[in-house]
Amino acid sequence: EDQVTQSPEALRLQEGESSSLNCSYTVSGLRGLFWYRQDPGKGPEFLFTLYSAGEEKEKERLKATLTKKESFLHITAPKPEDSATYLCAVQSGNQFYFGTGTSLTVIP
Amino acid sequence: ETGVTQTPRHLVMGMTNKKSLKCEQHLGHNAMYWYKQSAKKPLELMFVYNFKEQTENNSVPSRFSPECPNSSHLFLHLHTLQPEDSALYLCASSQPGLAGFSRELFFGEGSRLTVL
Questions:
Q1: % of chain B residues with pLDDT over 90
Q2: What share of chain A is helix, strand, coil (3-state, %, to 5)?
Q3: Nearest Cβ partner of A98 from B6, B43, B102?
Q4: Which of A47, A92, B30, B114 has the least CB density, counted as fewest CB within 10 Å?
């Protein structure tokens, strides 16, 4: 069964304290892995697409990496404005499978 | 205009009401989607339209009725809903890629629906 699992469910960091979010997946025929940021009461905002193991993408304090079984979203020296829920999705065939997200809180 | 616009942002309706959610995309995409987001659950795909044709209906109850008059507009017609239908309804669009691959989804801000 195609599945996406994100961990941890919630994460609290002090400002400047780097950490990583995990997205593990079991899908057949991965076509792409996507990271989104979602603020409360808003729609998900696209961050990155990764297509193959070993690929990395960076944007400001965020860096996404991909292996054959999981992806990590590394957050370097986070700021309070990075607080949000981060969603991972994988595409298998024409289907997108979403995880339940990691709720990140960055404390000043 | 922002990429994907949804109206209304908030909707409260009784179980016997009929209402509609509207989505408009200004990205030139050819695929549009309706997703349901409930607390602590993954996004749940409801419907997919490619080039105005419905290509996915994910076993959604008939009290939800989609309409896609053109590649830029998508509606979700609601009638005789249940309280458990209360959720955030998200519209998304994407540009189909090569060999049937879909590219990343771009979401609207969502319509928060409360069914009393």
A1: 73
A2: 5, 60, 35
A3: B43
A4: B114
